[in-house]
Amino acid sequence: MTRNDGRIAALSGAVISRLEALLSGLAALLLAVLLALVITNAGLRYLLHVGLVGAEELAIWLQVAMIALAAPLALNGPLAMRLDALTTRLPQALKAPAGVMADAMTTMAALVLLFGGATVARTLGGISPTLGLPEGLRFGFLAGGGGLLLALLTLSRLSAGRGRALFAALVIGAALHSIVPFLSVETDLPPSLFLALAAAIGLACGAPLPHAFLAAAHAAIAFGSPQPEAAIVSTTVTGLSKFLLLAIPFFLLAGGLLTGSGAAGRLVRLAASLVGHRRAGLAQTTLLTSVLFSGASGSSVANAAFGAATFQPELARHGHRPAEAGALIAATSVLDNVIPPSIAFLILAAATNLSVGALLTGGLAAGGVMALCLAVAIHLSAGRRGTAMPRATTQERRAALAAALPALGLGVIVVAGIRFGVVTTTEAAGLAALYTLGLAMAAGLRFRAIAAVFRQSAGEAAAVGMLIGTAAPFAFQLAVDDVAGLVTHLVTLLGGSAGAVLLLANLVLLAAGLVLDIGAAILLLGPILLPAAMAAGIDPVAFGVILVVNLMIHGLTPPLGMLVYVVAGVTGVPAGAIFRAVTPYLAALLVALALISIATLLFL
CA-CA distance, 595 to 604, in Å (whole number)? Predict the structure, then answer.
């Protein structure tokens, strides 16, 4: 690197730091405004039987703006959802070209958002009757997000001294973006097949999953896709514009505040007082803490990070090998997206219109089965190494329960409120966030720490939201090509029985989960497999629970294994060692999946 290159890298690094701080701060501010808006509107409706005119529409618009601002920040972190397991195994000579192609896909995605969003914003007429704002403004947010993504990509690569690779990626991405609309490839194959192949190429090169989806949707135009660039952005915004999806940032915020307030630590003490004296007591405490924490967080990633920081050192001190301790933490974290409140069920409900309350109730039962199977696996596996803790007295248990009641009450508020129709899912999530904010303030958490939780939650929610939005054009193309009808027809040819459908669906999901992010798999496969299940007489809610349980298991499987990578990142234990150590717990969760599937068939 020349001296001039060094100056450019240093300047780019300084600019990107300030830009990221600005964007994350604005996103956190929008999240705070969203929380205040939802809580105020709910309070007015339930106390005074009035509501703010246009509150839900305004909340949706602000959510789109938050995602547009914060989603580009996920470019280089774990929230980018890159399939790094493939690129890290490439020969050294191929890693640089793969990186260039990945950045070319990101460039294409940014240009689609920029130009497609600008086109819709410019051509869409009309004024929102409730907000008095131009209807095109919502699409302009994503145009701005595309520009921010392009700027952050440029600054990031320059700060890393990769100017030449950046130039090549920008040229390739811009060229493909410009040429594709003028290409016309005659073929009898469905455009969704080429969309899937293009997305797979992007993933194999290490492109972030949402960027691969957008670039692939644009590339599919050459193969007959009915979605031009503006339609891709329009479908993306439509996928984001659901009031239900506001529950995701609120639940993430509740989990972060619960940990910051110290309430999560009180859940640990309660769990230890109940099961710490048993064989492998600390390991069983880790499991029970995950069950209790699940009632507040809804995020397996949040639980994995919390468990890795809290339990890994103690498990090692009590005789567990580091990799085995990490495997245990990752495995128990699976429960957070099954036991309500669950972000995975929110994504499924948004994709299929299934009842959130019914899904959460089914998830509670399924989570219990999974926890029991994991408890048996811990007893048989971890019990050979771990030591038991002293038995807690009745007085100690009562004290621990009393201290944990505020955190336990959160789960009751959320699940009961949704299930009995007292509040909507989004309002319940908002109440959960407000409740944990009160706990954090009562615990003396400083403003800076609370603001950091808001920034982190906004960034995580934006990454999830962008995935949901960019999967919408893919799902639309699958619907146009009637892939769900083809799957139903295939199942009919195989017999069409409920047992055959469940077996086939589980096998498809187990295979797809190896190469697809959990959220993307839910968004793409849920609408495809659900009609076949319903045609076979399977209860749609029960099938939805099976789908989520199946896909959550892949938080532990290579090459993606998100929960394993989170634990490895926090603890410093190599991910490969954790993948090898997680086998007993993976087997236990597969047994749980089989039991849940069998129970579904028995109660038809």
Answer: 15
